[in-house]
Sequence to fold (879 residues):
Amino acid sequence: MSGPSKFQPTHPALKWFEARLPIVSLMYDSFVAYPTPRNLNFLWTFGAILSFILVIQIVTGVILVMHYTPNVDLAFTSVEHLMRDVNYGWLMRYAHANGAAMFFFAVYIHMFRGMYYGSYKEPREVLWIIGVIIYLLMMATGFLGYVLPWGQMSYWAATVITNLFSAIPWVGEPIVTWLWGGYSVGNPTLTRFFSLHYLLPFVIVAFVVLHVWALHVVGQNNPAGVEPKSDQDTVPFTPYATMKDLFYFSAFMLLFFWFVFYLPNYLGHADNYIPANPSVTPAHIVPEWYYLPFYAILRAIPNKLAGVIALFASILILAFLPWLDTSKVRSGTYRPLFKIFFWIFVAVCILLGWLGAKPAEGGYVIAAQILTAWYFLHFILILPVIGLIEKPLPVPDSITEAATGGHKKKVGVAGAIVALAVLVGLAAGTGKAEAAGEQPKPPQLTWTFAGPFGTYDRAQLQRGFQVYREVCSACHGLSLLSFRNLAEPGGPGFTTEQAAAVAAEAKVKDGPNDQGEMFERPGRLADRFPSPYPNPQAAAVAFNGVAPPDLSVMAKARTYERGFPTFVFDMLTQYQEAGPDYIAAYLTGYEDPPADFKLPDGGNYNKFYPGHATAMPPALMDDLVTYTDGTPQTAQQYAKDVAAFLMWAAEPHLEARKRLGFQVMIFLLVLTGLLYFTKKKIWHEVEKPREIAHGQDPKATKI
Amino acid sequence: MTNPSLPSEPTRRDFLYIATGAVGAIGAGFTLVPLIAQMNPDASTIAAGAPIEVDLAPITEGQVIKVTWRGKPIFISHRTAEEVKQAQSVPMSQLKDPQTDQDRTKTGHEQWLVVIGICTHLGCIPIAKSGEYNGWFCPCHGSVYDDSGRIRQGPAPLNLAIPPYRFVSDSKIEIG
Ligand code: FES
Fold:
């Protein structure tokens, strides 16, 4: 803010320093004395929440880089190394991956809040445009980061997104080749994406500084949309805004950690646990959820160039919002007509997001086209027109009047109506889709490791390992696991001697020795499980052209369509067992093909396999493996045991994760509660005089 | 909710603020644990640092070989009887870091000297069978060690360290 600083140092050392670099007074004026409107609701805390998440992303990101190797041959295994071997590596990676999702979730609330309350209007146009730039940078950063684990989704996301630029006439192809540094996505692409993914967050930090600077020049907007006129209208940033921000940030962390500790892979794609394979595209390519609306817009338009233009236009149009909205009234609270269209717009965005996740065919495409049209019409037609024809409600004279006037908020009601409309739309769409597909869903089994307190059943893991060793290992590797893992806490609970004995039975290639020759020796605890074939090509030759996949992360690399509304409830029930459910069902899902089904050569009919024709023949049958603990020797039981074992193989720190998660949750609940009461107490002093003056229940105006 | 926050009770309010601040500080403290712990050796590095076995049979008298354990060079010196005698007879008063040769070898295997080949000055690798004392000479800043690996001259403060090891048999040791 302009004018002399409110910070007047008395200590001579501080005075000396202030005269040379007035940074302390700058901080004081910006984050302590800075006046903020007294009527800000919780939606205004998302700016602070976003800043905190940015810090979390940078800290965890810098740590991930310490363990990550940007090389096409090593990227995937280095990420798995981080997840398995590095102290708290799983926590760092899950926090970073889910942190990105939370970042977007928070930024969408932040943006919709700005749209509803007209925060982009004069004099805040530049502030808004900087925000749009930050959002664009976030999208770029998120995409670049998604490529780094070098799974199937990483690789194909890189291919599809860079190919957007090939739509540019004349120079499209050279630009794409330049982006790749080759003739396809490869090692040069990965290394430059890595470099840029490290760079961009700091560019974001720079723009956040500009964003905050601009904000402090023009001041914060507020729910009433009128500028502060007297000291009565504002409160100092500290402690009022600080405490409120901290309270809501703490509450937000509860949501964040719910995902990190209990649903770490819920927001990701199972396919990204399959190492990148440039010769096979996954059946269903979808971006992360936060890009889905734009992806739907891209696919809605049947022309390549037009689709790409629409995609970019749908984001860039946000920058013109200050001039597209013609209304003189800032806050949506006093704009009855705008309010309706605002919520319709929110619903359109959510539905576009849902369509972006659906296959681009039939009714979905038509729906996406209608919604895309609406998306653009909202900006170029609806907003300019309603600003002219709408009769706004009387706007309060001052913030204090708005805050004490007891204005009833109907946001909740409107939100509920939108949510209902979206749900009905989704349910109708999904119902239709389900009737069309005949893919049966794997039965949901009971697993000891499910839920917030889940732990592995040691005996089951040992049996599962026995099944793997005696049956699966003939064709499938387990190359990301080491023998020592068998004796590590949270696993099958073998003793170190037992694990060493298992290792000694294996033949491990080592060398070169002093004579320069490779040699075989018995395995040691530190060795990885050797693969049954020297390379995937050799395995493919032995198996009719289809190499049996490595099983190390199989339980996280397989899933099945959960459908609506199940996938919503999965967030509450913490359902993360789609992988083992699918594996158990698949292993026992072999059947005779229906009469009209044409089975390709070398194919086997499996009820649960997508497309039904799987290369693997049935492997399990009753009494194939001899259990020593009296467990029934049925194929069903073998399948379940080996699926549990593979879940452990894919997620060896599951128990530690859930244990720590519980502690963190309890701690955060306590902290959030304390912050709530502290905030309440501090704000009480602001709200109390009003209570006396107007004789009102303060809760009537509190958000 | 009760309303314990009347202005007449400042102590209760202060308690709330202090409690909130303390819980927040504890949380920040615990957050540092994983952020710091991740830089410690990971499980695969620890596993790879398991003890190694070295066969002594091929090492002839007077020969020094170098093996690697936990990424560190280990010198194994098969000393001649003369060298052993010389090492054992050095008076303690001449040593910067006094230690007898018997303390640096295993009884019954005095001809074998096993030391970590890292100069105790600033970590360079000294050259075997060189220097004034027929031991090691560090080219970095000129530290000289004798044939028992003890510091005799130069800036290094300590003798070459002895790794943990034991004789599995007369001709085999396990380091680690
Ligand atoms: S490091 Fe050997 S003398 Fe300095």
Residues 1-6 of chain B have pLDDT under 50 and may be disordered. Residues 145 and 152 of chain B are 5 Å apart (CA to CA). Helices of chain B lie at 10-37, 43-48, 81-88.
